[in-house]
TrEMBL record:
<dbReference type="Pfam" id="PF13602">
    <property type="entry name" value="ADH_zinc_N_2"/>
</dbReference>
<dbReference type="InterPro" id="IPR052585">
    <property type="entry name" value="Lipid_raft_assoc_Zn_ADH"/>
</dbReference>
<protein>
    <recommendedName>
        <fullName>Enoyl reductase (ER) domain-containing protein</fullName>
    </recommendedName>
</protein>
<dbReference type="InterPro" id="IPR036291">
    <property type="entry name" value="NAD(P)-bd_dom_sf"/>
</dbReference>
<dbReference type="Pfam" id="PF08240">
    <property type="entry name" value="ADH_N"/>
</dbReference>
<dbReference type="InterPro" id="IPR020843">
    <property type="entry name" value="ER"/>
</dbReference>
<dbReference type="GO" id="GO:0016491">
    <property type="term" value="F:oxidoreductase activity"/>
</dbReference>
<dbReference type="InterPro" id="IPR013154">
    <property type="entry name" value="ADH-like_N"/>
</dbReference>
<feature type="domain" description="Enoyl reductase (ER)">
    <location>
        <begin position="8"/>
        <end position="300"/>
    </location>
</feature>
<dbReference type="InterPro" id="IPR011032">
    <property type="entry name" value="GroES-like_sf"/>
</dbReference>
Amino acid sequence: MKACGVSGAGKGVALLELPEPSSPGPGQVLVAVEAAGVGPWDELLNGAGWDVGLRPPAALGVEGAGRVLAVGAGVTGFAVGDRVLAHEAPLPGGSGFWAERVLVNADHAAACPSGLDAVHAAALPVNGLTAVQALEKLGLGRGQRLLITNGGGATGALAVQLAAAMGIEVTATASAAAAERLLGLGATEVVDYHDPNWAAEVRGGFDAALTIATGTADAALPVVRDGGRLCSLTSDAPAEERGITSWDLYVEPDAAQLAQLAEQAAAGTLKLAPEPQPLSEGPAAFDRAVTGRAGGKKIVLTP
């Protein structure tokens, strides 16, 4: 089958021809991939920090959407032909979603609503689950204040929307070009991250900060109130001080959370900005994602 991935440990991303996945084992489903998400985390999959059980030669990608082709023993929630979306890690077949077919654990997959096309569904899993899990752990409520760095990115834009829907007052850092879009998504204030003194431009005393841009956690900490919280998505949470709880968060598969996100996206209450690209453009899409040149769009590969 056609795929995009790596031929060996430490090898560059390239187009590949891979063997078909094995038949689904107990609790697994075989999915015909219709769209697969690309993100900066894909750089970590090939022995560079995130062990997802990749067994090269293998396709990259830990999220996507498609149709069930076969179900393993004990699977009761899905049948052949069902549309699903999933974030999967570790990968049960040792190969990912940037391929024509992939094996997935059925309990990590969510039903794809009829109003959600495959490209938008594939844009949702990792970014959406990351935003939900971060906000859940931050534990903010109506009227509290949240700072989000890189609010214009795929995860940041979803976090802005989800937080605003909870009645949380959101200040986001982003480019000036993204300001109008983020205000429309529910942000109260948008600060240009190009300004080296951006932290001095915001009103301090935030109840929490969600740092999504690398290197912003240290700058965000001083504007969080005593006893507040800081969650870093870039593995650079600063040491705790002034009673502020500070931690790094790593996304986990969660079918129930993903199903809720998919329903919100299908209903139009959660806006996505996918940029579909053919699988043949996979290496170029990978380069754009890992070097931060996606322009706030979520790149999605379509086999």
